[in-house]
């Protein structure tokens, strides 16, 4: 508890911020700058030509939220839930007439918190919380490492790739998976010694598994990466529906990026020939210490498997359609099953304490902001501004310019979710203006944001990895810049042709939508 009051109000606030684990200067400065920028855009700066007053108000909120998210002046979830409040009090979205009186458009400003993707996320968050209580996450990790007989750096990295991939079905958000795997990975790296080669090997393991692995596998599963849900919601509102299996089919080639980054990271840190002390035996011992699987663990796996099957067998399923419920409805049904009395041996408070409510609020706010940018005309106006820079260029050069620009912008932003929430509606409008397929174009540019690997502060999962004190920012940047270039090339040379094969060519906006509506 903060007790130092010698510095007056500022000292009191700074001390409390410091004890909360944040940088006082950054948080206080960010908070003030956010509100100053908001006020200037609302009441001082004239609206640029072509931007409606509503768009200017939404721009003020966008800038406010961006500064809050970057500086972490307020918890990201609180910033998220504050977006609807600002949309109401600023009249950024027109108020509606009800019984002869104007009333705030509550359905519109809170639409981000009532959409199906938000309930899909909440179900996944609760599954993750129960899994942590049962210690099933640790069992999954050690089982896989045991099965691949992890005895050297290469086997450990590939083993954790399998762990990340499996956990992607169960735990939403890369940061949650990184936090889950952190103690296990540290347990493995602690088996290494302190020679120069072993220190370099630790860097490779931590960066590749906690950051690259958790981010890349998250792109494959719709619920495993919050930007996925923002994109699915945006596309759905514009008539381009994507199901759970549709997303997996579209994105599975991105798993190949792990192969490339794994090769580069191991080459860069020269891990060839570095073995784990005690080899496979040490990991096997940790696995055996867990004992037999409990009934609770088995029940959770059965419940999740059942819900996952319903995700996959919905409307338009390429396997077999057994129902027409949307993913959010199935998720709500899954919650009903999870909390059948006696199914698990712990109280609601234990689940509540481990559910990432801030992430839930962040997603709702991000989706709301994305929709507001589109409805107010702000996204279209910003797309117009970018249009002149890339007009007349061939599709692959447009992608190259936009991908490179995205990585430059992302150097100063922490949240991958916030970045995609801001970029997605602009990209969607820009794709239409340029005569490109809006979905393919938006996905290709937004997906490259996942590979923002220049600074650890660009991705929350990387912040967790950096907290291990295994590597420096220089180590991270030297490894990361090559991965950024690989990701840009991969998007243009591999993913764009793959989307075309599936019937979604980025160069053909008139292509018939290949997935069921």
What does this structure look like?
The protein is mainly alpha-helical and 517 residues long. Among the domains are: 1-109, no CATH class; 110-134 and 292-344, no CATH class. It is built from 24 helices and 2 strands. Strands 1-2 form a two-stranded antiparallel sheet. Strand 1 and strand 2 (101-103) form a beta hairpin. Helix 15 runs antiparallel to helix 16. The chain starts with 7 loop residues before the first helix and ends in a 16-residue tail after the last helix. The mean pLDDT is 87.
Give a brief rundown of this model:
Among the domains are: 1-109, no CATH class; 110-134 and 292-344, no CATH class. The chain contains 24 helices and two strands.
Class inferred from helices and paired strands: mainly alpha
Fraction of residues in H or I helices: 55-70%
How would you describe the oligomerization state of the chains in this entry? single chain
Strand content: under 5%
Q: What is the tally of beta strands?
A: 2
Spatial strand order of the main sheet: 1-2
Mean pLDDT, to the nearest integer, reads 87
- Biggest sheet overview: 2 strands, antiparallel
Shape descriptor reads globular
The Rg value, from CA coordinates, equals 23 Å
What is the element layout, followed by pairings?
Layout: H1 8-19, H2 24-44, H3 53-71, H4 76-89, E1 96-98, E2 101-103, H5 106-109, H6 116-134, H7 136-147, H8 153-170, H9 174-189, H10 196-220, H11 226-237, H12 244-251, H13 256-268, H14 279-288, H15 295-312, H16 327-338, H17 348-354, H18 357-375, H19 378-390, H20 395-410, H21 416-433, H22 438-448, H23 460-466, H24 473-501
Antiparallel strand pairs: 1-2
Helix pairs in contact: 1-2, 2-3, 3-4, 3-18, 4-18, 6-11, 6-15, 6-16, 6-17, 6-18, 7-8, 7-14, 8-10, 9-10, 9-23, 10-13, 10-23, 11-18, 11-21, 13-24, 15-16, 18-21, 19-21, 20-22, 20-24, 21-22, 22-24
